[in-house]
Amino acid sequence: MPSPLGMIGLSRHHDGIGKVAFLSADTPPCKTRDSLLGEAVRRIDGYFYGAGADFSDLPLAAQGTAFQHRVWTALRAIAPGQTRRYGELATDLATGARAVGGACRANPWVLLVPCHRIIAANGDGGFMGAAAGAWPRLKQYLLAHEQRCFAS
After folding, report:
1. How confident is the model at residue 141 (pLDDT cuts 50, 70, 90)?
2. pLDDT at residue number 132
3. Which end of the chain, N or C, is more open, meaning fewer C-beta atoms within 10 Å of its C-beta?
4. Is the pLDDT of residue 60 over 60?
5. How far does CA 35 lie from the centroid of its chain?
6. What is the chain's mean pLDDT, rounded?
7. E strand or H helix at 9
8. Rounded distance, CA 72 to CA 34, Å?
């Protein structure tokens, strides 16, 4: 699907959404007949146009470790327009900030599990495992968008 940040791809597994990821700019859009993916596309599109940011009831395919699920569940509890620091979340989960960062890097559901809402103690931090290049700019865009459209 096209978005203000470029193409976004979604995949479906039998038990839910398998992956949401940013794709290369030359990826052609395509339509889906799958009702779950269609609903996810509709909500992601609405997110970018300020209509809503609640993805909590979209089923996600079972994958990842128990620890990653703890982190991803905590990420989904962060309200749009809000941020938490890696260290704060690590303290809440009785683990280390790097472990939280690793779980964020492994997150297969960009936007649906909002790892962009986790920031470093001394700035935004990386995004999707990258501290330079386009990824941090995407994180900054998403945070600014949520502050503008969804922060209360």
Report:
1. very high
2. 47
3. C
4. yes
5. 21
6. 90
7. strand 6-13
8. 25
Q: Cβ–Cβ contacts within 10 Å for residue 75, how many? A: 22
Using only C-alpha atoms, what is the Rg of the chain?
15
The whole-number average pLDDT for the span 75-99 is 96
40-71: b (≥16 Cβ within 10 Å) or e? bbebbeebbeeeebebeebebbeebeeebebb
Instruction: State which CATH number among 2.40.50.100, 2.30.40.10, 1.10.10.10, 1.10.1760.20 fits the domain covering 66-149.
Output: 1.10.10.10
pLDDT band at 123, cuts 50/70/90? low
Distance of CA 73 to the CA centre of its chain: 12
For 143-146, the CB contacts below 8 A with 24+ separation are 143/83, 143/116, 143/117, 143/119, 145/48, 146/53, 146/80, 146/81, 146/117
Q: Where are the domains of the chain?
A: 2-48, 66-149
Question: How many other CB atoms sit within 10 Å of the CB of residue 33?
Answer: 6
Of 30, 104, 115, 149, which is the active-site residue? Answer: 115
Nearest to 73 by CA among 46, 104, 50, 98: 104
**What average pLDDT does range 60-84 have in this prediction?**
96
**Quick check: 130 pLDDT over 50?**
no
